[in-house]
Amino acid sequence: MAERVVLAYSGGLDTSVAISWIGKETGKEVVAVAIDLGQGGEDMEVVRQRALDCGAVESVVVDARNEFADEYCLPTIKSNALYMNRYPLVSAISRPLIVKHIVAAARDHGGTVVSHGCTGKGNDQVRFEVGFNSLAPDLDVIAPVRDYAWTREKAISFAQENEIPINVTKKSPFSIDQNVWGRAVETGFLEDLWNEPTKDVYSYTEDPTVNFNAPDELIITFDKGRPIAIDGRPVSVLEAIQELNRRAGAQGVGRLDVVEDRLVGIKSREVYEAPGAMVLIRAHEELEHVTLEREQGRFKRHIDQQWAEQVYDGLWYSPLKRSLDAFVNDTQEHVSGEIRLVLHGGSIIVNGRRSQESLYDFNLATYDEGDSFDQSNAKGFVQLHGLSSKIAARRDLDL
């Protein structure tokens, strides 16, 4: 059997052309592997067949929707993960799952080389290749788009010259990556930071003014950090994301216009749509405010940021990421309860919280009848708490 290259196949121009190009340049057979992450769009059977038509010796589609939700989206919720406090890691959390299945396919189909369609400017090349090195350091990597400086024009010319059966005449002004967790849009006129996103940029969300007179109130139930019900109806994590994508998307929630710091050292403008992700992270974070002890909560906010940076930087399989996971999972023991919120005009407004694990004590918090807080204890606490600052002030002011 000839040597084989296992290609992470999206069904688009670059990876379709890559099938034929890899075969011609290396003499190796290509096995195409497409991963269903709930991205919608084309039927996955159409994608599978296209890879065969383009020259793949085998074409595989993996339904990883529930796996993605349970093992990648859920940890992101538990970590309240927003890179630069804004981006919910739409693409970043999908790459380690794709890597996992590409490596598995290489083992199953006799692959000695793996391949992806990433450019040299983006973060995804790092996420793929660091992931491959972590799970299968014995496999070589081919990155034709990056290593041979492909442009769209070069890819189209190659497809035409080699009679590759793919429609290359439709030109989208954007580069788009999407899955059930969200949608990322870049390039085109968005590269001018002053240009406002136009209506055709968006797909997962409505204009926030469309349903402005019909706000949507809902209740999300969590059990140990995991969303388990919406409005009392049991849901899987995947179902929770899908329902909130619909409901929050209809209210224009989850639109993000971000200039972010890429790992490779350049700044990039990205427009994201992540309605379900933003609602779940906001609700989960609010429940933590009710159920986590103060010092634990303070420390976890630092860990959440570190977790997001590790994942953004392609280090899903790193030792530090595993250690952060252990801490985060330990903090979720009491993160159970309900959050009521309103989706309206592009905003998420929390207006109710309740939990059997709550650390909120009404009798300590109230200023009315029944107050059980002994205010006489506060005077000494204040004096001791500020004592070191007071001593320093005497010195600095020469009193």
UniProtKB/TrEMBL annotation:
HAMAP family: Arg_succ_synth_type1. This is Argininosuccinate synthase. InterPro entries: Arginosuc_syn_C, Arginosuc_syn_N, Arginosuc_synth, Arginosuc_synth_CS, Arginosuc_synth_type_1_subfam, AS_cat/multimer_dom_body, Rossmann-like_a/b/a_fold. Pathway: Amino-acid biosynthesis; L-arginine biosynthesis; L-arginine from L-ornithine and carbamoyl phosphate: step 2/3. One of its GO terms (biological process) is L-arginine biosynthetic process. It comes from Gordonia jinhuaensis. ATP binds at residues 8-16, 117. Homotetramer. The gene is argG. PROSITE patterns: ARGININOSUCCIN_SYN_1 (PS00564), ARGININOSUCCIN_SYN_2 (PS00565).
